[in-house]
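Researcher: Before we compare anything, I want clean individual predictions. No alignment, no superposition, just each chain on its own. First chain goes here; please echo the sequence and then give the structure tokens.
Model: Echoing the first chain and its structure:
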Amino acid sequence: MGIEFDIDRIGGVKGLRALEDLVRRAGDAALKHFQRGVVPEKKPDRSPVTVADREAEQIIRDHVLSAYPEAGFLGEETGSHGDGKGIRFIVDPIDGTRAFVRGWATWSVLLGIEAEGVPVAGLAYMPADDDFFAAVQGNGTTHNGTQVRVSKLGPLADATVTHGGLQQFTMTGVGEALIRLAGACDIARGCPDFDGYRQVLLGRSDAMVDPGVQPYDVCAPAILIREAGGRFTSLQGEETIYGGGAIASNGVIHDELVAALSSAPYR
């Protein structure tokens, strides 16, 4: 991806462990709200937000801005801080708020770190399932402390592909891509939010297709997938988290998948 990341830029292993503890603390605070139940509010874009989203993001933001005063910050709820030209922390305090408010355990807390615009570290915590994923560029991806690797299955015709919600396809104008996906792979299963990427990381799925996403949705998943041996691109195959959509795969089927989802008729 064009750079080599020095973990000392975030305080080395000690700094990484502090960030892992921070994400766990934010997730555990949200979990208390999840267990009690919350009433969501609607943001201007009609997406839901809860007191748990705001509390979890504030916990992470306060620590990051104190521990890394020169770093940038981007959070779904509190927006951007700093110029983001060097190290930037990118946070989705509850990825899957709709799942959260309906009692599904598939929500997560995501913290990604980019350096010079490239994802270099990622943490994903699913408190309701007690699942924790971590990756730093060049060091692989772990799931609850154990290294994980994506599958090696191919071709696409034999693959299982997870995907985001149907409205993600229709509202972003790529509804036909879902039909092409159904014809191109062995089985396509709806599995929105980070849970779809989790299935790829655990080898249960061979790819995740995720239209209509923001950088805070995919910064952490991008580096987690790459460090587990997979590929992460936009829907058009660009190596970016700023393409408005994402494909994460085991790498074996990636080019086939990009082609199958393109505007050209599927054959």
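Researcher: Okay. Second chain, same rules.
Model: Second chain and its structure:
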Amino acid sequence: MTLERTSAITRKTAETDITLKLRLDGSGQNKIQTGVGFLDHMLVLLAKHALIDLEILAVGDLQVDAHHTTEDVGICLGQAIRECLGDKIGIRRYGHMVLPMEETLVTSAIDFSGRPYLVFKAEMPAAKIGEFDSELVEDFWQGFAANAMCNLHILLHHGRNTHHIAEAIFKATARAIRVACEIDPRQTGVPSSKGVL
């Protein structure tokens, strides 16, 4: 019998108040409310493509801008996945996806190594996606990688539409997370020659 991999994270600062619940072995069910429309859209896609059940309620200082809310949600999601993975026994550890979205092509590769590092090579053609600052896509994944304690490499091969680029990044990374977090039936211990991750 496999233990259910779930996590509940709360983060309260002078800038944000966030509650996040995650079921890693889910079906993509989600209830997302951050106050940032485009971020909500990306998080719904992430839940659906990673096949995680995700609930997020975030209240942030949106009178300033969406930066703190976006970054802190990324931090909380990273913490939740790290908590769900525990000692990482039996997981695949690595995951990657090359994902097309119309004119856009993105590769995302992840390693739940216990060592945080983000490489983000995806230039955004437009500064805004609606009211959303497109540079916040990188800030979200920086917060995630640092707190999930993973290596995450995101590479834009080509793309013209900034909305498509951001969406392809979230979908590709969700798919990579899904693979990396899966239990490998052939893996009997921690997937590392060190014996610990």
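Researcher: What stands out in the second chain?
Model: DSSP finds four helices and ten strands in the chain. Additionally, The beta strands are 6-12, 16-23, 30-33, 53-60, 94-101, 104-111, 117-121, 128-129, 132-133, 151-158.
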